[in-house]
Design goal:
With 742 residues, the protein is an alpha+beta fold. Strand 13 (626-633) and strand 14 form a beta hairpin. The chain has 3 domains: 9-52; 57-390, Chondroitin AC/alginate lyase (Glycosyltransferase, Alpha/alpha barrel), CATH 1.50.10.100; 411-739, Distorted Sandwich (Beta-galactosidase, Chain A, domain 5). Helix 10 packs antiparallel against helix 11 and helix 12 (266-287) runs antiparallel to helix 13. The strands form 5 sheets. Strands 7-8-9-10-19-14-13-12 form an 8-stranded antiparallel sheet, with no helix packed on it. Helices cover 33% and strands 18% of the residues. The chain crosses the membrane at residues 32-52.
Length: 742
């Protein structure tokens, strides 16, 4: 019989160290002996570090620090569950209990929608529909139906979790099992529970790794894991899985708590993130014992996310573009379901009113067929459902304007800094939004300080489009500052190829491209560590804000977004010392005033302010330092825009069908229209022209541009009087005088 051989590299290396050290004492001096032993000890430590799994230090082990820092008790293990099945989608919510008193026609439609799944109904997933049919209309199901559901769930193949493009269905199987479990014996459920536990283990392995990014796939993976964990039975082995899942749930909650909106774009949020977020919160509120502080915080976060939806909705009932966006900025398919669910979780009718508005706008397209099965569980009031989604009845109420105060808000204050300013909530309201925050995801664009303005139609707009991560249009135009209403600082000699996806180096003067094709942020703590080191995620921040006498002012510091004296990705000492943008809105006069100040490092670094419009503006040079433009809209002049600078300005109007995505490289001074992979779709604003105002810094070292946008009666508006005073510039617009501090 052979003796067992220990092949553990740490043990083998330790044994060899002892032998080598004994030999060294005989062959070398004490000094050399010490050096040799130190080197070998370092090798031992290196092997141990290589064998240790450090991934948890940036994910699960760090989760909850933000909440704890805010005084919210989170505990150290998976919380106690006091509720029997179903634990997640509660049958006791107002919407569910009201179904018994609902309109008979509505009940008939729901029965047809859900229970017809047994007749191979093409709407939605038959198993989901049939399970919910048995829950909502128990008279429709015989005892054998529940046994059949268990068998089908057991035979449903689980799809593994992945760090990106995750299509795992385990959480949906768990939701259905949660409903079925109350109607069958525990012994029948064991095979399905075992399958869920194995799938959860696989998903937690992905979450414990470093590939999934927090404001991307990691967010929903953490929520899906928690949903699955809530359904698993009590047991020593399942408790370990549940505790791991709970940590990742907290990690996801801390992410949305920080930003209060979705930096990766509304389309990704509403299609892939919002629903699992609300279901996970619902499960926690329904089934967890105690932990009232965390429950209150979860409801507060849900409320803020709901407000983000509402404030970001333009007067034309579309979400303002913010990143790699897509068709669902039109509010069809899932926004109504999500907002109704938010109303249920918060108990506030405001969100249900917004949901009803979407139904009035889009009728049957307000909902997505694959999620009809969730309607009985997510409704704030089942009777508020409009029968047009079933195509059989007319609208009960027209879309009306919401009344909500205040008329401005900042979402993700101190981090995301998404600012929205409105003059009101009717179709004629002025809508202004901008951001001055950090980077969170590769689906974000490099647009700190970019603003968009809407008055009856888009005035200044985001020109980006999105049809894939690595199209020429996205890499060389849409993800960059040149596609925004922002500032460019031109410097030759830059090599702009932040990843292997960039075959060309195109230096367009914009903000640093940090991770435009892939990110891997694992926790909020990891994000904080990389603000001013590592990735240098800090891109902008709010210096101050005020709202006095009908004037709202925001001062933004955008310096960190550019290659600056603080950090230069090119390793060349920076191209700017400071970049400031002040944005003010005068509600009574319906005027937007923007003050830009840039201090380039070198006098030959040209500064360009970019403004995108749907049509070619009419321009009039007033003086070397001034310019007037009129932006045309449907039926006349949409806005009058006056510019003043402390330096001589040059004007370029760029666009037309073959110049819509035109970019000039600062190294070669050659231009190209990057239209590869581009399409004009209705969910984008599709501006065709942009105005570029350029100049070199004055002798004082600064470039300054004042922009005054008059929206009220722009056809007869007069040119503002720009006066430069020692204490700062002053603008006289009609009877109103507006002053800036120096």
């Amino acid at each position: 019989m052979q003796a067992a051989v220990n092949l553990n590299p740490v043990v083998v290396l330790s044994a060899n160290i002892n032998k080598l050290c004994e030999y060294s004492m005989k062959a070398f001096s004490k000094r050399i002996f010490r050096i040799l032993c130190l080197c070998l000890f370092a090798a031992l430590v290196a092997v141990m570090l290589a064998k240790f799994d450090w991934s948890g230090r940036t994910t699960a082990s760090l989760a909850g620090q933000e909440l704890q820092g805010a005084g919210v008790f989170i505990g150290s293990d998976f919380p106690a569950i006091t509720r029997s099945y179903p634990r997640i989608l509660s049958r006791g919510n107002p919407g569910f209990s009201n179904i018994g008193n609902a309109d008979p026609v509505l009940i008939e439609n729901m029965q047809s929608l859900l229970c017809a799944g047994q007749k191979q109904n093409s709407i939605g997933h038959p198993l989901k529909n049939r399970v919910v049919c048995s829950v909502v209309f128990p008279g429709e199901s015989a005892e054998e139906h529940w046994n059949q559901y268990v068998s089908e769930l057991q035979n449903t193949e689980t799809i593994p979790c992945t760090a990106s493009n995750n299509l795992s269905n385990t959480w949906q199987i768990a939701l259905l099992l949660d409903q079925v479990a109350a109607h069958v014996s525990p012994g029948q459920l064991k095979p399905v529970f075992d399958k869920l536990a194995a799938s959860l283990e696989q998903c937690l392995g992905v979450l414990d790794g470093r590939s999934a990014s927090l404001w991307h796939g990691r967010f929903s993976l953490g929520l899906e894991a928690f949903i699955t964990a809530l359904v698993l039975p009590v047991g020593e082995q399942t408790q370990k899985l549940k505790t791991r899942a709970y940590k990742h749930f907290l990690n996801s909650i801390e992410a949305i708590r920080l930003t209060e909106g979705w930096p990766s774009g509304y389309n990704y949020w509403i299609n892939s993130r919002a629903l699992t977020f609300l279901i996970a919160v619902d499960g926690f509120l329904n089934s967890v014992s105690g932990m009232e502080g965390l429950k209150r915080e979860l409801v507060r976060i849900v409320r803020r996310v709901g407000l983000w939806h509402i404030y970001m909705t333009r007067p034309d009932n579309r979400i303002a573009a913010i990143a790699d966006d897509g068709p669902r900025v039109d509010l069809k398919h899932q926004t109504r379901l999500v907002m109704e669910y938010i109303a249920k979780l918060t108990g506030e009718s405001l969100y249900a009113d917004y949901a009803e508005k979407i139904v009035a706008l889009h009728g049957v397209q307000a909902d997505y067929a694959d999620f009809y099965w969730l309607l009985p569980f997510t409704s704030y009031n089942f009777n508020s459902y409009n029968d047009t989604r079933f195509g059989e009845r007319t609208l009960r109420s027209a879309a009306g304007g919401l009344e909500l105060q205040p008329l401005s808000d900042v979402f993700g204050s101190g981090a995301y800094n998404q600012v929205v300013i409105r003059s009101g909530w009717n179709h004629d309201a002025t809508f202004l939004q901008f951001r001055a925050g950090s980077l969170f995801s590769h689906h974000q664009h490099y647009d700190a300080g970019h603003f968009s303005l809407f008055k009856r139609m888009p005035v200044f707009v985001d020109s980006s489009i999105y049809f894939g991560m690595q199209t020429d249009n996205r890499l060389y135009y849409s993800v960059r500052t040149v596609a925004k209403n922002g500032l460019l600082i031109h410097r030759s000699g830059e090599d702009v190829r932040p990843s292997r996806a960039f075959e060309e180096s195109v230096a367009a003067g914009g903000q640093r491209l940090v991770f435009p094709t892939g990110s891997a942020i694992t926790s909020v703590a990891h994000w904080r560590e990389n603000q001013e080191t590592g990735w240098h995620l800090k891109a902008g921040h709010l210096i101050s804000k005020s709202d006095q006498a009908g004037v709202q002012r925001y001062q933004l510091d955008l310096t960190a977004a550019y290659d600056s004296i603080m950090f230069d990705s090119q390793g060349s000492g920076g191209k700017v010392r400071k970049v400031l943008r002040d944005i003010s809105y005068l509600k009574g006069q319906d005027i937007v005033i923007i003050r830009d100040r840039v201090w380039p490092v070198e006098s030959e670094y040209r500064v360009t302010a970019v403004f995108h419009t749907l049509a070619k503006p009419m321009s009039e040079i007033v003086a070397p330092h001034g310019l007037t433009m009129k932006i045309r809209g449907d039926g006349g002049v949409l806005a009058r825009v006056d510019y003043w600078s402390n330096v001589a300005l040059s004007l370029d109007l760029i666009g037309g069908e073959k110049g819509r995505y035109w970019v000039v490289d600062d190294n070669t001074m050659e231009g190209k229209n990057y239209d590869g992979g581009s399409k004009q779709k209705s969910w984008f604003d599709n501006p065709e022209w942009r105005t570029e105002l350029s100049g070199y810094p004055a002798a004082s070292g600064s470039f300054e541009l004042l922009t005054v946008v008059q929206l009220h009666a722009p056809e007869i508006a007069s040119r503002p009087d720009f006066r430069v005073k020692p204490e700062g510039p002053e603008i006289q617009v009609g009877d109103y005088s507006f002053r800036f501090e120096q």
